[in-house]
Design goal:
The chain is mostly beta strands. Helices cover 0% and strands 36% of the residues. A hairpin with a 2-residue loop joins strand 1 and strand 2.
């Protein structure tokens, strides 16, 4: 069976050279989305690919992956992450600890933005809370071009009305003396999402 329905619309920024291509809309039903179990956790591959399973949302000029992950209470999952890709998680229900960040994320609509670059972690670790967790995990190759209208100041602590979702930046690193994940107990929070 499928988890409860979530209506979700996504869009991707194209390279400047591809901006004038014909717009494309793709409606995807739950029956078209392949599922894979990792332990007791369910991963639905909406777009891109995960472990050689291709999701129905595909576009040759966009290197991106969209996963819908449902976790039972008190379960953990580890997922490989390309350190050079932009990755964020969007909590849709329940609560979870993302890579040892404190406090536990329990506000629906909260986004966790992971570090990118050669020093970024190559693994994501998530532990569901006592009521379980469901989140979207989105990753993609940066296009290396400026985004019009974005000032680049997404980590400036700025308060907005409480209806705004906050971004928590996960800063996990590995060192030669400690090959396991090492995450600080504090995180950089911002109520100015980088896509605004």
């Amino acid at each position: 069976g499928y988890p409860p329905r979530i209506d979700w619309a996504g869009s991707a920024n194209l390279r400047a050279a591809d901006k004038m291509t014909r717009p494309r809309y793709q409606e995807i039903s739950a029956a078209q989305v392949p599922q894979v179990k990792v332990g007791d956790c369910l991963i639905q591959v909406i777009g891109g690919h995960y472990n050689e399973i291709n999701g129905p949302a595909q576009r040759p000029d966009i290197d991106a992956c969209f996963l819908d992950i449902t976790m039972p209470p008190n379960q953990e999952i580890k997922l490989a992450k390309d350190p050079l890709q932009r990755v964020f998680a969007l909590l849709t229900s329940g609560s979870a600890d993302f890579d040892g960040q404190s406090p536990v994320v329990d506000q629906t609509g909260s986004a966790i933005l992971y570090e990118t670059g050669t020093m970024a972690n190559s693994q994501i670790w998530v532990a569901a809370g006592s009521s379980g967790a469901r989140f979207l995990l989105v990753s993609g190759q940066p296009i290396g071009e400026p985004v019009p209208g974005w000032t680049g100041r997404s980590t400036t602590p700025t308060r907005r009305p409480s209806s705004a979702s906050c971004v928590r930046t996960a800063s996990c690193t590995r060192s030669a003396s400690s090959p396991t994940r090492s995450c600080p107990t504090t995180s950089t929070s911002s109520c100015t999402p980088p896509w605004n």
